[in-house]
Amino acid sequence: MKEGLAAAVLYGTGRLAYDPDVQIYGKTGTCSEDGARLGWFVSYATEPQPKYVVVVLLRGGRMMFGPHAAEIAGRLYHNLRLREQPPAQASTPLPMPLGIAR
């Protein structure tokens, strides 16, 4: 199962969550509920012990799909990693997609 979660981020629908500095395991999904589309991505980042679990659930129109949720999760992981680095090593955070509040 772990290999499948890693492959989803490395090669599949969750690849927009990919971060070269941390291994992310995740699964995307897209479905409809009462005429609205749902897009989700559930994931965790590994170390010897997983430190972060990120779940993104989007509800709305056509742009709500699993890969978009993975992209948002990837930005969260990236910015969390930057917060943990000493200031001299931190790089510029990735911009959030339009319409997404920080």
How would you characterize the overall build of this protein?
The protein has one domain. 27% of the residues lie in helices and 28% in strands. It is built from 2 helices and 3 strands, in the order H-E-E-E-H. It has helices at 2-10, 66-84, and strands spanning 24-33, 36-45, 52-60. The protein has a 3-stranded antiparallel beta sheet with strand order 1-2-3. Strand 1 (24-33) and strand 2 form a beta hairpin. It is globular, with a radius of gyration of 14 Å. The chain starts with a helix and ends in an 18-residue tail after the last helix. The model has no long low-confidence stretch (mean pLDDT 84).
Number of separate structural domains: 1
Radius of gyration: 14 Å
* Uncertain runs: none
Quaternary assembly? single chain
- State the helix count: 2
Q: What coarse outline follows from CA principal-axis ratios?
A: globular
Structural class: alpha+beta
The residue fraction in helices comes out at 25-40%
How much of the sequence is in beta strands?
25-35%
Main sheet: which strands, in order across?
1-2-3
Mean pLDDT: 84
Summarize the helices and strands and which ones pair or pack.
Layout: H1 2-10, E1 24-33, E2 36-45, E3 52-60, H2 66-84
Antiparallel strand pairs: 1-2, 2-3
Compact overview of the structure:
The chain has two helices and three strands, in the order H-E-E-E-H. It is an alpha+beta fold.
Structure characteristics:
102 residues, alpha+beta, three-stranded antiparallel β-sheet, 27% helix
